[in-house]
Design a protein that fits this description.
Blueprint lengths: L4 H4 L19 E2 L1 H4 L12 E6 L5 E7 L2 H11 L6 E5 L9 H15 L10 H5 L1 H21 L3 H16 L1 H46 L3 E4 L5 E4 L9 H38 L7 H15 L4 H19 L1 H11 L2
Antiparallel strand pairs: 1-4, 2-3, 2-4, 5-6
Helix pairs in contact: 11-12
Length: 337
Amino acid sequence: MSLDDADNRQPGGSPAPDDVDIASLPLRPFREVYEDAENLGKFDRTGAYAIFDARRSMQYLGYSKNVRRKLLMHASVQRGACQYFKMYTPPSADASGPDELERVLKSWVLQNGRLPPGNGPDRLLWEVPLARSSLDEQERQERVRERAIVPTRRTRERTERARSSYRGDEDDDLDLDEALDQMGRMAKKVAARTFRVLQSGTKRAAQMYDELRAEYVEETEQDRRGQSVVIDPLDPFAPAASEARRKQQPSSAQSRRTRSAERQQRADASASSDRRARVPGYGDGDDDDYSLMNDWTRITQQEWFPVAALFGFVTLMALLSLGDPGVSQVGQKTLGM
C-alpha cells in the first residue's frame, strides 16, 4: 500500500485519480525532505505534489517520477516560498502516467479556486534554476547601483576637493577662453586663405577650359531624317561619328600642320630681326640709330675700353707736343709735368 492510500481511495475501495481531495492529504513540512534522514527515499517515487508557503497558500503544482528530487530543486530556487507540501502517490502503475497526473492537478486547481502563481507568470522562477540565478544577479546589480547613488564620506570628500580645485582654476579658465578666441581667429584666416587659393585655381581652370574649347571645331550636319546635328570631331560617340571622323580627322591633322608652320615662320622672323639689329648701319631711320646705340653700349661695357681710351689720349698729346712748342707746354701743364 502507498504512503497515503487511505486518502487516495473512495469509500468503495477503488482508486479515483480524477477526484483526489487535496484537503484530505496531510500537510508536511519541507524539513522532512532535506533534513529528516528517515524520510530519505520515502518520497523517491512517482506522484503529484503541491507546495505551500508559510501562510499555507498554494504556490506551485507539479508531478514527477521522483518527487523528492523535484521538491529539492524547487527549494533551491524558492526557499522562502517552500515551507509545506502535499503529495499524492498513484495506487498502481496504470494510474502513474502523465495524463492521469495532469487530471489530478486540474482537479486541485478547481479545488483551490485559482491557478498558483508558480504555474503562471512566475513559472520559470520555479522550474529553471538559471532563471533564478539571473534574477539574483539583476537584483545584486540594482543594489550596487542604489548604494552608489547614496553618497558616502569618501565620495563627499572627493566632491569637496574637486570643487576647491575648480574654484582655484578660475584664472586658468579665462586664459583658456582667450586661447579659444585666438584659435578661432586663426581658423578664420586659414579658411579665407584657402578660399582665395581655391578661387584662383578655379579661375585658372576655367581659363584653361576655355582655351581648350577654342581648339574644338563643331560643325552641323544633316542626319538621315534631315535634322541638324552638332558634330564634335573629338567625340567618338557623337551622332554620325564614323562619318564625322572620316571627314574631320584629315582636316584636324592639316590644321595642326598649318599651326606648326605658322609658329615656325614667326620664330624665323624673330631670329632674322635679331640678326639685323646686331649689324651696325643696317636699316633706315630710327632703327639704325637704335642699332648704333646698342652697339656703342655693348662696346663701352668691355673691360679693355678704358685702357685703350687712356692710351689714345696720351698718344694724341705726344703728337701735338712734337708739332707746336706752345701746345707742348700747355700739354705738359695739363698733364702736371
